[in-house]
Design a protein that fits this description.
Elements (H helix, E strand, L loop, with lengths): L7 E3 L4 E2 L4 E2 L21 H10 L6 E3 L4 E2 L4 E2 L4 E2 L4 E2 L4 E2 L2 E2 L3 E5 L2 E6 L3 H10 L6 H6 L1 H6 L2 H5 L2
Parallel strand pairs: 1-4, 2-5, 3-6, 4-7, 5-8, 6-9, 7-10, 8-11
Antiparallel strand pairs: 11-12
Length: 153
Amino acid sequence: FAGAPEKLRIGRFCQIAQRVQFITATANHDMGGVSTFPFAIFDQTRLAGYRASLPRGRDTVVGHDCWLGREAVLLPGAELGCGVIVAARAVVRGKIPDYAIVSGNPAEVVRMRFDEATVRLLLDIAWWDWDKAKIEAHMALIEAGDAAALAKV
């Protein structure tokens, strides 16, 4: 919401399916009182103090070229590396490594898309930072999945 201190950062070439939800830390409520109801939201003179009392959450980050499946939920502070695939209805928290496939609640790594050396190579290539003409010229290599051939571009 307006004035929330944390950010949602989404990389380039991400695919976000229907009803994906991003829950940021400011969506939380103060849990120190008898009730968690945010009474201060109805009183503009108290609202700033209420916002200041909430813990500062980490930014939520989605790396480049991620695919978020239908109805996936990213919890406050989730951090997805590049090339991550999130299964439909997965609930993601914490840090997810580059090129992992995750599913479940809480989401867990099912498998890695590539071995460590290929992941490092793909991150070095960083094709998502190329200009449009270079991407268009080498789209077949990007789609083919041959990181070694792509590295020769």
